[in-house]
Amino acid sequence: MDSIPDMDITVTTTTTPPATSSSATSSQSSSRYENQKRRDWNTFGQYLNNHRPPLSLSRCSGAHVLEFLRYLDQFGKTKVHTPICPFYGHPNPPAPCPCPLRQAWGSLDALIGRLRAAFEENGGKPEANPFGARAVRLYLREVRDLQSKARGISYEKKKRKRPPQPLPSTLLQQQQQQLHALQSPPPGASA
């Protein structure tokens, strides 16, 4: 299979980016996200063309997406320690080791998000989106857990801070009455 550069490197292809209804993607001032999404989409298209036998997008499944993600590992820059490595579970090892370089979980997760969006923007039906397949979600979770243990870095989901809930009007009225009662002198007290 022909070599495909790392996802962070601009891919030069002979295909033109697909036309979209958004004027932001067709202008020269496209956002960084849109540019990266277009490059990722072109890279995935190149991967499908280089697949043996060549694969059309309509026949692409979650299994092909997994094959693509595993293929990308050869371009990874993240050291993932094996369980037999003395640095297994250490985020900053003191010496080099022969453990493989892989794509970082966060990079793969972001890549799948961009490709999932690009698939639908390029005419794919959401229910047929191979980037949203259950197998892909399970693979990403497995990679996250494996890298978390191997590198000693926990990937905890950030909890959203919820704004304080407004009090129901009846409870608010009761609190205002209690506050008023505390502020006014008791009956029969002289002023």
Automatic annotation (TrEMBL):
Keyword annotations of the record: Developmental protein, DNA-binding, Nucleus, Transcription, Transcription regulation
Region (Disordered): 1-36, 150-191
One GO molecular-function entry: DNA binding
Biased composition (Low complexity): 10-31, 168-183
Predominant cellular place of this UniProt entry's protein: nucleus
InterPro entries: ALOG, ALOG_dom
Name listed for the protein in its UniProt record: Protein LIGHT-DEPENDENT SHORT HYPOCOTYLS 3
Organism of this sequence: Tripterygium wilfordii (Thunder God vine)
